[in-house]
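Write out the 3D structure for:
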Amino acid sequence: MTPQALAQRAYAQTAAPTRTPRDTEYEAISKITRRLKAAAAGQQSDFGAFVQALHENRRLWTVLASGVTDSDNALPNDLRARIFYLAEFTEQHSSQVLGNKASVEPLLEINMAILRGLCQMGAT
């Protein structure tokens, strides 16, 4: 490669798409939901992966709950309260799933509902 081509390549602007916070949220929730769904399908053969996926989902909801309790959060109070409630539900229901007392399906349905909401708000 010539020095001119190297210089042009080094200084050329990369065309990275601009990501909004909603796009980032959508991507994170989508990724964790896909992992949880796949791990649930293979739960019998790899219970460890299922437990890890549940843990990641719990961490996601802990982060979401923390975000809505921040006084700088611009979401309406009612929506913030509902997201916090879903985080609490996710925590409790995950424990029931691990104790084999409940299905993982409600957790997947909640995540999918959030993804649909983010799409309606213009994410991804």
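The chain has a mean pLDDT of 90.
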